[in-house]
Design brief:
The protein has 113 residues and is α+β, with helices and mostly antiparallel strands. It has a single domain, classed as Glutaredoxin (3-Layer(aba) Sandwich). Helix content is 34%, strand content 14%. It contains 4 helices and 4 strands. Strands 2-1-3-4 form a 4-stranded mixed β-sheet. Strand 3 and strand 4 form a beta hairpin. The longest helix has 12 residues. The radius of gyration is 13 Å and the shape is globular. The protein starts with a strand and ends in an 11-residue tail after the last strand.
């Protein structure tokens, strides 16, 4: 199990605590320090069964507006933007083999168990 974590984010800390309360200790990946590549992001999008890469993006981030990503329709370009700017990736994400879950709301993180 790999957990994409931002320790400065309260939701990310809450979801990690919830996993630990359920007896799980995933491998922690501080994705801002060790960003995932495009293949990893694409894999997570697939495992989450998202209809668009945009569904994994933090659309309220300043960089989203600066890069004018709202007007981008190319899925590969959106994935590349997340790889280049990991701050755009919504958090937290738990990856567990063929499954993944986005911890928004926090309890949804348990869906990947």
């Amino acid at each position: 199990m790999e957990y994409w974590h931002n320790p400065r984010c309260s939701k990310s800390r809450e979801a990690l605590a919830l996993l630990e309360q359920h007896g799980h200790r995933p491998t922690i990946r501080e994705y801002l320090k060790t960003p995932p590549g495009t293949d990893e992001i694409q894999s997570v999008i697939s495992k989450l069964r998202l209809s668009s890469a945009r569904d994994l993006m933090r659309t309220k981030e300043a960089i989203y507006k600066e890069l004018d990503l709202k007007s981008v329709e190319d899925e590969d370009a959106l994935v590349q933007a997340m790889a280049d700017n990991p701050k755009l990736i919504e958090r937290p994400v738990l990856i567990n083999g063929p499954r993944a879950a986005l911890g928004r709301p926090v309890e949804r993180i348990l869906d990947a168990l």
